[in-house]
Amino acid sequence: MKKGLNDFFENYLGKDPLFLDKKCLQANYTPNNIPHREEQINQLASILAPALRMEKPSNVFCYGKSGSGKSLCSQYVLDQILDVAKKKKLNVNGVYLNCKLKKVSDTEYRLLAALLKTLDVEVPTTGLPTQDVYKMFTEKIDKEEQLLILILDEIDQLVNKIGDEILYNLTRLNSELKKCQIIIVGVSNNLMFTDNLDPRVRSSLSEEEIVFPPYNALQIQDILKERVKVAFKKDSIENGVIEKCAAYAAREHGDARRALELLRVSGELTERDGKTKIKIKYIDDAEEKIEKDRVLDVVRTQPKQSQIALYSIMRTSKNSQVFTGDIFEHYKEVCNKVGLKPLTQRRISDIISELDMLGIIHAKIVSKGRYGRSKEISVDGVKHISTKIDDILKESLGL
DNA sequence: GTCAATTCACATGAAAGAGACCACGGTCTAGTG
DNA sequence: CTAGACCGTGGTCTCTTTCATGTGAATTGACGA
Asked: Within 350-369 of chain A, which residues have Cβ less than 7 Å from strand C?
């Protein structure tokens, strides 16, 4: 046995790796060359350019579906500007904040704390009144003459969680600051996002707008080809693979990130299979694997109570559809078995909705007339891995 | 047969509570000179 | 005398509970034909 494993590793090392540089297929990689986004980059650059003359540029708003290069382009432009500013010894600063990260977007407080952190000011994670943190922020940036470019990525998440008040405060801050000016670059997946903003915020935030259209299949192919050159060894990709990846991703609103992930996972699967050439069929496998991993990961990281709820759902809804009440009954039993205090039905109702949002189950509100209104719940989407989910839940709950 | 009222079984909202967390500042303790 | 351990305080955050209100169609029952 030991020998076998040893052989295996020897063998593994002996094999030619398929990848040259896997990094560049990963999401956070910034390529030197961003194809099919020249126009957006130029727009953004020309909007922000006045900063280099120490004039305040307009606030900008970037729209576009996920994986359409918004974050990439805005970071790229910011980097370039800061680069030039540094060379010319201009006091232009930039901060890139991804509001999707939990530690940033949960509250106004955390956003400010995260902001301050990037400016080398440590703030306790909790404990201070929000107002004080505001004060610290204004004092910090108003200490010297400077322009601060603030890129708020996934800004819609932020507003969803904590409302648009913070944006209002930030835009208004400029009139209070004496030496410093803030430029806000909002980046959002949601095209409708500004519609439900406070009008005051909307007008000042989106002085300029840049739209990132989704990539079409051909453009995604270009992007993939570009990266494949660096990522894989020559000739390790069968004809049509890139095309298929691109087509898959284009089907999902032209998400380049997804295309790259697909390609990377296909590569990994191929390598694991001991093959030296990525074949088309691996893409299908990859897609399935990505989805499966996602679901299992979500299940694994759910809090205990949600897991119990999910367990009940999996158990109860084996064949037919079930309703909230049935699940709640079963859930209470499981709680007793596990030794946890059951939550109220109100909460379970919310948990079910959360699980629905995560795409693990399907919950549809149906009215059964005289017999009330309830959520009809099914687990069709994850049926093929239901045993896996069951195992995870059992293990985690100690059943 | 028709139509409005009723009714069910929850959904959905708002507000308030319970714990947990965490920095801060004061107090206590032990080690040092 | 001072550094570090320890504790209470004031604040926030998250997860829940409580209370209140909303909802859509099957069912019911009054009404008229």
From this structure: 350-351, 367-369
